């Protein structure tokens, strides 16, 4: 603060404005809206392969097993 008092007021004001602009620049966001952020996030995750469908046969196997249990129950009590 002492160095600011030694300068003339115009120079001190310009220095403070420069420091304020520099501080604001550090908080700038790359995206202007939330939609832009979400679009970029989804694109990045797709590039990483997070949204690919894995080929799992468990749902088909469980359905076939339940169908066999139901069919066996019907035949047993019919």
Question: What labels would you give this structure?
Answer:
78 residues; mainly alpha; 4 helices; 0% strand
Describe what this molecule looks like in 3D:
- The chain has about 80 residues and is mostly helical.
- Helices cover about 75% and strands about 0% of the residues.
- The chain is built from four helices and no strands.
- The longest helix has 20 residues, at about 60-75.
- The chain starts with a helix and ends with a helix.
Helix content: over 70%
Please outline the major beta sheet: none
Number of strands: 0
Distance between the termini: 95 Å
Instruction: Indicate the mean pLDDT.
Output: 84
Number of helices: 4
**What is the element string, with H for helices and E for strands?**
HHHH
Q: Give the overall silhouette.
A: rod-shaped
Give the uncertain stretches in residue-range form.
Answer: none
Q: Which class of secondary structure composition applies to the elements? A: mainly alpha
Strand content: under 5%
Radius of gyration: 33 Å
In short:
This protein is mostly helical and 78 residues long.
Describe the secondary-structure layout:
Layout lengths: L1 H5 L2 H17 L8 H15 L9 H20 L1
């Amino acid at each position: 603060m002492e160095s600011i008092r030694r300068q003339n007021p115009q120079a001190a004001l310009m220095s403070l404005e420069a420091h304020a602009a520099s501080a604001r620049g550090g908080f700038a966001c790359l995206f202007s809206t939330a939609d832009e952020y979400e679009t970029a996030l989804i694109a990045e995750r797709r590039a990483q392969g997070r949204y690919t469908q894995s080929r799992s046969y468990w749902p088909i196997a469980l359905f076939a097993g339940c169908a066999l249990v139901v069919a066996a129950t019907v035949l047993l009590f019919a």
